[in-house]
Specification:
8 strands; alpha+beta; Pnp Oxidase, Chain A; about 140 residues
Length: about 140
Protein backbone atom coordinates (compact mmCIF):
# COMPACT_ATOMS: atom_id res chain seq x y z
CA UNK A 1 0.00 0.00 0.00
CA UNK A 2 1.20 3.48 -0.90
CA UNK A 3 0.05 6.93 0.16
CA UNK A 4 -1.88 7.13 -3.13
CA UNK A 5 -3.94 4.15 -1.94
CA UNK A 6 -4.45 5.87 1.42
CA UNK A 7 -5.71 8.95 -0.42
CA UNK A 8 -8.16 6.81 -2.42
CA UNK A 9 -9.44 5.18 0.78
CA UNK A 10 -9.80 8.46 2.67
CA UNK A 11 -11.43 10.25 -0.28
CA UNK A 12 -14.32 7.76 -0.03
CA UNK A 13 -14.82 8.51 3.67
CA UNK A 14 -17.15 11.37 4.49
CA UNK A 15 -16.79 11.36 8.28
CA UNK A 16 -14.03 11.11 10.84
CA UNK A 17 -13.78 11.19 14.60
CA UNK A 18 -11.51 14.06 15.61
CA UNK A 19 -9.63 13.74 18.89
CA UNK A 20 -8.38 16.85 20.70
CA UNK A 21 -7.15 17.74 24.18
CA UNK A 22 -8.97 20.38 26.21
CA UNK A 23 -7.23 23.21 28.10
CA UNK A 24 -7.95 21.12 31.25
CA UNK A 25 -5.93 18.27 29.68
CA UNK A 26 -9.00 16.09 29.03
CA UNK A 27 -9.55 14.17 25.78
CA UNK A 28 -12.52 15.19 23.66
CA UNK A 29 -13.92 13.66 20.48
CA UNK A 30 -16.07 15.10 17.71
CA UNK A 31 -17.57 13.57 14.61
CA UNK A 32 -16.81 15.88 11.67
CA UNK A 33 -17.35 15.90 7.94
CA UNK A 34 -14.00 15.61 6.18
CA UNK A 35 -12.36 16.12 2.82
CA UNK A 36 -8.84 14.97 1.96
CA UNK A 37 -6.12 16.42 -0.26
CA UNK A 38 -3.67 14.40 -2.38
CA UNK A 39 -1.06 15.21 0.32
CA UNK A 40 -3.28 13.30 2.81
CA UNK A 41 -4.27 16.54 4.56
CA UNK A 42 -7.72 16.55 6.16
CA UNK A 43 -10.04 19.55 5.88
CA UNK A 44 -13.07 20.19 8.06
CA UNK A 45 -15.22 23.07 9.19
CA UNK A 46 -16.39 24.14 12.63
CA UNK A 47 -17.48 27.26 14.48
CA UNK A 48 -15.23 29.30 16.75
CA UNK A 49 -17.61 28.72 19.67
CA UNK A 50 -17.07 24.92 19.61
CA UNK A 51 -14.94 22.97 22.07
CA UNK A 52 -12.82 21.57 19.23
CA UNK A 53 -11.96 25.10 18.07
CA UNK A 54 -10.78 26.18 21.52
CA UNK A 55 -8.81 22.94 21.88
CA UNK A 56 -7.10 23.20 18.48
CA UNK A 57 -6.15 26.84 18.93
CA UNK A 58 -4.41 26.06 22.22
CA UNK A 59 -3.12 22.59 21.24
CA UNK A 60 -3.06 22.03 17.48
CA UNK A 61 -1.89 18.40 17.62
CA UNK A 62 -4.86 16.12 17.06
CA UNK A 63 -5.92 12.70 15.85
CA UNK A 64 -8.58 11.08 13.67
CA UNK A 65 -10.17 7.65 13.45
CA UNK A 66 -11.60 7.18 9.96
CA UNK A 67 -13.43 4.36 8.26
CA UNK A 68 -15.78 1.91 9.88
CA UNK A 69 -17.34 0.16 6.94
CA UNK A 70 -16.01 -3.34 7.29
CA UNK A 71 -12.72 -3.52 9.13
CA UNK A 72 -10.67 -1.04 7.14
CA UNK A 73 -9.58 1.97 9.18
CA UNK A 74 -7.06 4.77 9.30
CA UNK A 75 -5.62 6.08 12.52
CA UNK A 76 -4.23 9.54 11.81
CA UNK A 77 -2.16 11.99 13.83
CA UNK A 78 -1.29 15.49 12.70
CA UNK A 79 -1.26 19.21 13.34
CA UNK A 80 -4.29 21.41 12.66
CA UNK A 81 -4.01 24.91 11.25
CA UNK A 82 -6.92 27.31 11.02
CA UNK A 83 -7.19 28.40 7.42
CA UNK A 84 -6.86 32.03 6.42
CA UNK A 85 -5.30 34.21 3.77
CA UNK A 86 -4.34 32.84 0.38
CA UNK A 87 -4.63 29.19 1.54
CA UNK A 88 -8.31 29.49 2.43
CA UNK A 89 -9.88 29.47 -1.07
CA UNK A 90 -7.90 26.40 -2.23
CA UNK A 91 -8.74 24.26 0.78
CA UNK A 92 -12.31 25.53 1.07
CA UNK A 93 -13.02 24.54 -2.55
CA UNK A 94 -11.66 21.04 -1.90
CA UNK A 95 -13.92 20.80 1.12
CA UNK A 96 -16.97 21.99 -0.84
CA UNK A 97 -16.20 19.49 -3.61
CA UNK A 98 -16.72 16.75 -1.01
CA UNK A 99 -19.52 18.60 0.83
CA UNK A 100 -21.36 20.87 -1.66
CA UNK A 101 -24.31 21.25 0.70
CA UNK A 102 -21.98 22.91 3.23
CA UNK A 103 -21.61 26.05 1.11
CA UNK A 104 -24.67 27.23 3.00
CA UNK A 105 -22.55 27.18 6.16
CA UNK A 106 -20.72 30.26 4.87
CA UNK A 107 -23.55 32.33 6.34
CA UNK A 108 -22.95 30.89 9.81
CA UNK A 109 -21.45 33.29 12.32
CA UNK A 110 -18.02 32.19 13.55
CA UNK A 111 -17.55 29.57 10.76
CA UNK A 112 -13.95 28.57 10.13
CA UNK A 113 -12.06 25.79 8.36
CA UNK A 114 -9.05 23.78 9.47
CA UNK A 115 -6.52 21.73 7.57
CA UNK A 116 -4.68 18.95 9.37
CA UNK A 117 -1.21 18.05 8.13
CA UNK A 118 -0.30 14.41 8.77
CA UNK A 119 2.58 13.36 11.00
CA UNK A 120 1.78 9.65 11.26
CA UNK A 121 -0.93 7.27 10.16
CA UNK A 122 -1.74 3.60 10.27
CA UNK A 123 -3.92 1.82 7.74
CA UNK A 124 -5.45 -1.44 8.94
CA UNK A 125 -7.42 -3.91 6.84
CA UNK A 126 -8.78 -6.83 8.82
CA UNK A 127 -11.17 -7.76 5.99
CA UNK A 128 -8.36 -9.79 4.42
CA UNK A 129 -6.36 -12.74 5.63
CA UNK A 130 -3.74 -12.21 6.77
CA UNK A 131 -4.63 -8.68 7.88
CA UNK A 132 -2.71 -5.77 6.34
CA UNK A 133 -1.35 -3.13 8.69
CA UNK A 134 0.92 -0.38 7.42
CA UNK A 135 2.27 2.77 9.04
CA UNK A 136 3.33 5.97 7.31
CA UNK A 137 5.28 8.83 8.82
CA UNK A 138 7.34 10.37 6.01
CA UNK A 139 5.10 13.21 4.81
CA UNK A 140 6.39 16.24 2.92
Amino acid sequence: MKTLDIFDFLAKCKLGVLGTISPENRPQSSLVGIAVTPKIEIIFDTVRTSRKYVNLISRPNCSFAIGWKGEQTVQYEGRADELSGSDLPYYRELYFAAWPECRSHLSWPELTHFVVHPHWLRYSDFDQSPPMIQEFSDFV
